[in-house]
Amino acid sequence: MTLTRAGDPTGDPGLFGPGSVTWQAHGDPMMWIAGIRALYLQALHPRAVRGVMQNSDFRRDAWGRLMRTAGFVGTTTYGTTEDAERAGARVRRIHRMLGATDPDTGERYGVDEPALLLWVHCAEIGSYLHVLRRSGFPLTDAHADRYLAEHRHSARLVGLDPATVPADRAALAAYFARVRPELAAGDDALEVDDFLRRPPVHPLLVPARALLWHRVAQLAYDSLPPYAHELYGRPAPDPATVTRRLRATGTVLRTIPARLRWQLPPKHILRAMARLGPAARPAPYKLGP
Asked: Are residues 79 and 14 in contact, defined by beta-carbon separation less than 8 angstroms?
């Protein structure tokens, strides 16, 4: 991947660039549902979710956390190389300062343990890929493998050795199979689940929560793998029904003009197009073979 000089915003394609699968895929509106799915999945690793719960008031700042994650993804996808490197350095600096304590053993550990960073990365990137493909975004198997390989870049930014990160579908599936025995729905995971199902809102917004948010969160939850439903203790929905709902939702959201969707702050895509020109506009038809 050819990059211009870091720090020079003019014509700098950033870490991925307009020719990447990531560039086209991350402009899709189903990324929001994929992000919620990632939270559900990440919470099933007791050591990883403990690091979140012991270092933040999740219930008070869950929206902020979700928006910071979205901002990081937007910056690393569409920002300049310097922007992406700066965002990664900030994440690594914060992680170095934080630790968590196992309440059963008293063990103190850092939240930047490679195994924990790898789980968070794989649950996130795997969720993006799963929801996009299942909702009808036109990613072939070859595209999916390219996408995973590209995200060794984002893994490096958070402190992982890219050589240890799954770079294709087979490696990602093997990773999830390997880590599966470590997963459990403990108290922390159930608290995340409860928040995502019933986030606190102003009383006037309760009807909207029931009408809109509940459907979004439920769809994200339903798209989880069967073992996640088993751990959370609720019956797994019919896979074909979930796929139909994902495709229907994707179809509706994709009818919203992209320019309108991209007007929402912080406008990463519009800034990238202003920097690189209109040809940098992300679109599924640009994926190529």
From this structure: yes
